[in-house]
TrEMBL record:
The keyword Signal applies. Keywords: Carbohydrate metabolism, Glycosidase, Hydrolase, Polysaccharide degradation, Signal, Xylan degradation. It comes from Flavobacterium chungangensis. InterPro entries: Glyco_hydro_43, Glyco_hydro_beta-prop_sf, Glycosyl_Hydrlase_43_Enz. Belongs to the glycosyl hydrolase 43 family. Residues 1-20 form the signal peptide. The keyword Hydrolase applies. This is Family 43 glycosylhydrolase.
Amino acid sequence: MKRIFFSLLSFFTVFNFSQAQNNLKGSPPVIAEKDLTAYLFVYFIGNKVEEEAVNYAVSTDGYHYYALNNNKPILDSKTISSTGGVRDPHILRGEDGKTFYMVLTDMTSSKGWDSNRAMILLKSADLVNWKSSVVNIQKAFSGNENLKRVWAPQTIYDDKAGKYMIYFSMQHGTDPDKIYYAYANEDFTALEGAPKLLFVPNSKGACIDGDIIKKDGVYHLFYKTESETAGIKAATTTDLTSGNWKENDNYLQQTKEKVEGSSIFKVNNSDEYILIYDVYSKGKYQFTKTKDLENFTVIDNDISMDFKPRHGTILSITRSELKRITAKWGMPGQLSKINNNPVLEGYYADPEILYSNKTKRYYIYPTTDGFNDWSGYYFKTFSSDNLVDWKEEGVILDLKKDVPWGDRNAWAPCIVEKKIKGRYKYFYYFTAAQKIGVAVSDHPTGPFKDSGKPLVATRPEGIRDGQEIDPDVFTDPKTGKNYLYWGNMYMAVAELNLDMVSLKEGSTKIIAADKTFREGTYVIYRKGKYYFFWSEDDTRNPNYKVRYGISDSPLGPLEIPQNNIVIQGIPEQGIYATGHNSVLQIPGKDEWYIVYHRFSYPTGIKMGRAGGFHREVCIDKLEFDANGYILETKPTFEGVTLK
């Protein structure tokens, strides 16, 4: 974990600083854009009662979609609606990143187009299980005695109000359809107040099927005009409830056929958007692409679907969300292969990996990344039983609450499991405020209790540069002795006392590596040899990489192989800055894996200096040749595959 703040101006001028600054906040986002790697299409399929239901389809590229559940509903319309049917599903990810909201027209066309007075509100924490409520506008709010229909509700978060706005079209008597809005209550089970007008076009004609997206501080409303020449238009505003909309007179559909139900979504990790709409008279959808939300190009030839949707919406989802819904409704055989790197969603770095003999599970202990200038202050852990699917176990140590001697810069932890007097103990070494501390727990997921003081607070004797960071704990299988390694710009080692929370007096030693050594020492033992890993260069540099040396002792000296690169980036594949590793040996086997971080893909390389604190954790196979030398690992997107 590099913390040397020397000038890199000549290096960073090649990067787009403006994009980096636009992406940065003081702390990690609730969902990192780089983790949005798939799409969920929510739709219904027809005008028969059994077809008026919520269906799911998925895509990994935004162009090729495959129906889930054999194109059958994922919800029972009869249990969630008042009419027996639902149409026009709209889905939204909440501001917390993990709650989902869906709204539906409560209607079956078999009862007539002017037969519905209600909408359905749904809320979910996993895209699988939904809680629903029916909101009947006519019954809930007075003054709607002549209400004829309530169509195509949608949801957006109103930043100014700090609430979820539901907007929809309504027609009263012989008046044209108009777009109204109301805010949902906190539980998303009802509306806080009577609907108010959101938008009426200058023509005063009918408008339905509103769809709003926010781009660069401007809200873009796409809607269908009905009383004039029918088609899709757009209007913009910077204040949703101001009534001040600027209309675009152009029709946006790229067909002469009848259309409705437009919906727009952003292409993952791109500056492009795709506008879709239901060409309902032909039983098909049209897809168009844009960057400015004004000029659209048809991309129908690039699109494929193994189903025929009606009026729906598309939501960007993460790999874990894709796995969750396909675990429930089946993985389409035609779907592109799902990569397993990065193994953790979000921004994390400096990964330490542990196999626990107590729980028979694997654990990753990373630096929580995504904070400006590595300013994170807490540690999390993640567990897995297969090295592919990882569960967040929560915060295990919060420097501001738990570590009085160091409340900042939570970096690069390591851990060891010890069985002491028949009970497992976990000793967790970590960096805080550029010092090394230790915390103890009875369980790999904590809670951990700090020892009360730093274990290493000053540079070793004779060392004039560098930082006291990046601890690594190692138990020598030959002697049973425990060692702590640490250092940036130098490699230090000291023997741990039996209590594991103090160093043996006078045992600190500096191990000479070579000029490539910067930080991140990690030691393993294999077939009589000790392997020392370290990271070269600055973590902000795309050339950050891992090298190694070999020794006959945990205290050195080191033999540096002629070709000692363990892993490095592959720029032509967009993989950069692969460094600061730990190593896992599968228990009882000569099978090894390297766990490391890299710039977040594909966004990190575009962030300039900030790429060095927007990193992600990956796992790949680590292999040795017949003479015991490490073969260079090629970093992959595929990662570990389940056996």
